[in-house]
Description:
The chain is mainly alpha-helical. The protein folds into four domains: 3-44; 70-131, no CATH class; 159-256 and 377-407, no CATH class; 266-362, Receptor-associated Protein (Up-down Bundle), CATH 1.20.81. The chain is built from 15 helices and three strands. Strands 2-1-3 form a three-stranded antiparallel beta sheet, with helices on one face.
Amino acid sequence: MPRFTYSARDRAGKAVADTLEAPSRKDALRLLTARGLQVTTVSESGATAGPAKQVVSVDTRVITLNRKQRLPFLEALRDLVTSGMSAGEAVRLLSVRIKDPGLRLLCTGLWERLSEGAPLSRAMAAFPAVFDGSTLSLIQAGEATGSLQDTLERLIAHLNEQRDLRTQLLTALAYPCLLMAVAGGLVLFFLFFLLPRLQALFNSLHGELPLSTRILVASSSFALHYGAFFVIAAGLGAIAFWRWRQTEVGREATDAWLLRLPLFGGFAVSQTVLAFSQTLGVLLANGITAAEALRMTERQIGNRVHRRAFHGATDRVLEGEALSSALARTGCFPDLVLDRLAVGENTGNIVPSLGEIARNYRRIISSQLNLFVKVIATVVLLAVFVIVGFIAFAIVSAVFKVSASFKM
């Protein structure tokens, strides 16, 4: 029976190197995984290198893999690893037991690579649509230090916070959008359904209409005859603007405009501070080097103006400048944030400072979203009241004037 030499880590993270006998390399991997070992390398003793074995990949054409599978997979993996399973055995079990088609496809693809001796981080790297560079680096650091379970806990907490923020943002936007839809429907009902019938009544009475009514009738007539052209032009303009924004020049220009708006500018700054503090704190806490962590954090900043400024700050940090000092030159971070970072740097314990900043800015963003909803809802309601009030005034004044002229 062939003998295989392997290197691995046990559940405590201790490096192990030994040999074992097994019918094949795949059987050796399964035996080691069953022992709770996280395999790094397996090679047949005395074997000569032969032609590379072709790996049959899972067909991903039927089901599209994307970021949606990342968090459910990591949560399922964390649950099994916490119960005492090795990462490889947990993935193998998930590939058999999990019901969701996308997750099952992902787990099957990962197990194919794990069964060939690849570590988890390298197997995950084969699915860039699901796992980004930050996730892969964190998993790799967890494997290297033997603290994969702790790494998964921090990573899952980080991803849950990001998901909750997106959900809160979408929920906050839902109410203003509903108000605008109702307001638009009400105005269209007046202009296209009610007003033409009243106009026919006014014309039949041959009375002179007030100025407000003439403006309303002219607006309705214009909307009926040319409204479709304006809707098409607005749609084409929106599509052209959206496509221009997808370019790097357009994205940076629109992000710069966004920073100048009263409400949106402060919200964009808060989002940048939150993304910076959350991502950098998680990366540093899991043993990622400062240089690599800063570059990864840079990619998580959505606003292109802030990202470019942060890139320059990272260069200065790598040249030896303090992080708080380098960020102060960008003009993108509030003074209080810089002071907290400086305190963390001076005490040599910056990760807790980053965690405190992230917690504070989650609260700040929540408050900003509530204010945003109130402002938008108030503006929409006032606009509806003004428009409906003007329509009612124009109709009532016309009725009174026509009635008065009819009595005479």
